[in-house]
Amino acid sequence: MIKPTKPIIFCDFDGTITDNDNIIAIMKRFAPPEWETLKDDILSQRISVQEGVGAMFSLLPSSWKEDITDFILQNARIRDGFREFVTFTKERGIPLYIVSGGIDFFVYPLLEGLVEKERIFCNGSDFSGETIRITWPHSCDDECQNGCGCCKPSIMRKLAKSGSFRIVIGDSITDLAVAKLADHVIARDFLLQKCQELHIPHTPFATFFDVIRVLEAMEVKA
Ligand SMILES: [Mg+2]
Ligand SMILES: [Zn+2]
């Protein structure tokens, strides 16, 4: 087998780098019950992720910023082996980008000291109004009509040079569109099921030590 060259990694955040989904955790703890309807509407694709997430956060007063941030920093857990995985990619010279539908006010602090800000793509937030407003610095390009919010396929199109070997690491429905464009997917949970169903080339993972082993076995060369 020809060894893949010029690898580039796009790694999801919620439920991939962290054990759980942080937006769900915030809503469960802080939002009035309407958030559940919005979540169901997103899952059944009645509304886009962008619409749904925007509406969910608009249920929360901006003045709760500190409480919400403290809650996430205390409760989120980074998956085992992530630090070692980041070191591994650096040693091998493999570009690593974090592509996240999460929000800057919890994604950046949780990745502090692990991944540089320039390598993180996520949604923004504005606490200047009565309620929290989500901003969308990485919304869909002309080739995507999904209303992703943070559009992972658009980011991949922008960053992956032609001929590079595109690796996606993820866990959920929000990674599926970009997984379909990848050369190899490292997946858990729902995304793993989908990769199996759709015959997308993939390997399962539970921790980032598994991810390191997958990359070592593939002998990806930068
Ligand atoms: Mg996820
Ligand atoms: Zn999109």
TrEMBL record:
Its EC number is 3.1.3.87. It holds the Pfam family HAD. Keywords: Amino-acid biosynthesis, Hydrolase, Methionine biosynthesis. It catalyses: 2-hydroxy-5-methylsulfanyl-3-oxopent-1-enyl phosphate + H2O = 1,2-dihydroxy-5-(methylsulfanyl)pent-1-en-3-one + phosphate. InterPro entries: HAD-like_SerB (IPR050582), HAD-like_sf (IPR036412), HAD-SF_hydro_IB_MtnX (IPR017718), HAD_hydro_PyrdxlP_Pase-like (IPR006384), HAD_sf (IPR023214). Pathway: Amino-acid biosynthesis; L-methionine biosynthesis via salvage pathway; L-methionine from S-methyl-5-thio-alpha-D-ribose 1-phosphate: step 4/6. It is an enzyme of class 3 (hydrolase). One of its GO terms (biological process) is L-serine biosynthetic process. GO terms for molecular function: 2-hydroxy-3-keto-5-methylthiopentenyl-1-phosphate phosphatase activity; L-phosphoserine phosphatase activity; magnesium ion binding. GO terms for cellular component: cytoplasm. Dephosphorylates 2-hydroxy-3-keto-5-methylthiopentenyl-1-phosphate (HK-MTPenyl-1-P) yielding 1,2-dihydroxy-3-keto-5-methylthiopentene (DHK-MTPene). Belongs to the HAD-like hydrolase superfamily. SerB family. This is 2-hydroxy-3-keto-5-methylthiopentenyl-1-phosphate phosphatase. The gene is mtnX.
